[in-house]
Structures are given as C-alpha cells and as structure tokens.
Amino acid sequence: TDTLGHAWALDWMERARAAVSAERIALIDLDRAIGDGDHGENMDRGFTAVTAKLATQAPGSPGEVLKTAATTLMSTVGGAAGPLYGTAFLRASKAAGDAVDGDGVVALLDAAVEGIQARGKAEPGEKTMVDAWVPAARAAREAAADGPVAALRAAAEAAATGAAETEPMVATKGRASYLGQRSAGHRDPGAQSTALLLQAAAEAAEA
Ligand code: ADP
Ligand code: MG
Ligand code: MG
C-alpha cells in the first residue's frame, strides 16, 4: 500500500476502541498503582464516543476522521489524558490531510508529539505518554521509505518498547509525580494506552 485513506483511519478508530475496551481493567490497574485509577475508564468512554460519532458521519479523508476523534476525545476523556490526546489527534488530523504515505505517517506522529509537548511540557524520561510517542515518531522516520504500513508497524513496536521502558522511571510530570520515587516500578498508563493506539493504527494498515 502506497497511501492510507479514510477507510484506514476509520478502521484505526474502531480497532482503538476495541483495544482500549479489552484493556480497560489493565489500564485502570496501572493508573491505580501510580495515579487515581481512572485511565481505563476515561479511554474506554472516549473511544466509544469517537466510534459512535463517526458512525453518524461519512468522513472522506483521514484528516476528517482524526479531527472528529480529536474533538470527541477532548470533550469525553477528561483528566490529563483528554486534552493531551485531543491535541495530539487535532494536530495529527491537520498533518494527515487526504492521504497518508510513509512521510505522512512521520508528519502525523511528529504533529501528535508536538501537540502533546506543547500542552503537557513533558520531555522524554519523565514517565508519561511522551515516552511512547517520541520513540514511535523516530522509528517511523527510519522506516518511512518503506511506506506507510512499515512506518506504522515500526512506530507501534517502538511505542510498546517505550511504554515498557517507563517502568523503572521516576515520574516528574502528571499525577504520578506526586509519588516521587514510589512511582518507580510501575508502567505509565498513558504510555501503555499510546502503545495500544499505535498498535491499532498498524493493524488497520496491515488489514
Ligand atoms: P488523570 O491523571 O488526570 O487522572 P489520566 O489517568 O486519564 O488522567 O491520564 C494519565 C496519563 O496522562 C499519565 O499516565 C501520563 O501518560 C499522561 N500525562 C499526565 N501528565 C502529562 C504531561 N504533562 N505530559 C504528557 N503526558 C502526561
Ligand atoms: Mg488517572
Ligand atoms: Mg483522573
């Protein structure tokens, strides 16, 4: 596949909904360990709303799909993650436009990272979703010449590794930072949900 269109983006959102729903308890458990235990609920509510909203529309481009996702996540997820994911998808929607090739995947992920960092001010190593998104964007860049499917597969794998690598980190941003050293030894819930979302994006591209 040389480019991904609106069908990919719709399938991505459906797979994201299914993944977040299946992992709802696991995300709750992660957030219970170093936060307030609502991340699984927040994400499940958000992506259920996204697919419900998309079912009432006939979006003709990936940009339109991701824009609906952004505004819906912004108004339904709440907490820290709602505005962060909302901004990520809004920036990604502008980068995605009408079709996404290998470089388009890089542009989409770079835009998402920029949005998350503009809003949350976290750098890599602070034990947040940034630790999944930043390596994902880097991996996509390295694979971009092989096309969008390869770029998304590389991004998904890097995000999963990045999420796992948050386990020993001490949180210095977000609610987990209140725990200081006691945040070490637990995976960051937002990094884990990011890995789920990018895995869904890759699976939709491979389907
Ligand atoms: P809340 O902490 O308000 O309950 P959630 O539980 O939905 O919100 O989301 C928590 C996740 O948000 C964290 O695991 C982390 O990945 C992410 N997060 C929190 N603050 C920031 C930040 N400043 N920058 C990036 N990500 C952040
Ligand atoms: Mg929480
Ligand atoms: Mg909360």
Task: Compose a concise summary of this entry.
Helices cover 69% and strands 0% of the residues. It has helices spanning 6-22, 24-34, 39-54, 62-76, 81-96, 102-120, 130-143, 148-164, 189-206.
Q: Overview of this structure, please?
A:
The protein has a single domain, classed as DhaL domain (Serine Threonine Protein Phosphatase 5, Tetratricopeptide repeat, Alpha Horseshoe). The protein starts with 5 loop residues before the first helix and ends with a helix. Helix 5 packs antiparallel against helix 6 (102-120) and helix 8 (148-164) runs antiparallel to helix 9. It has helices at residues 6-22, 24-34, 39-54, 62-76, 81-96, 102-120, 130-143, 148-164, 189-206. The chain contains 9 helices and no strands. The protein is mainly alpha-helical. The model has no long low-confidence stretch (mean pLDDT 97). Helices cover 69% and strands 0% of the residues. Residues 36, 38, 79 line the site of one magnesium ion. Keywords: Kinase, Transferase. GO terms for molecular function: phosphoenolpyruvate-glycerone phosphotransferase activity. This is Dihydroxyacetone kinase subunit DhaL. Residues 7-203 form the DhaL domain. It comes from Georgenia deserti.
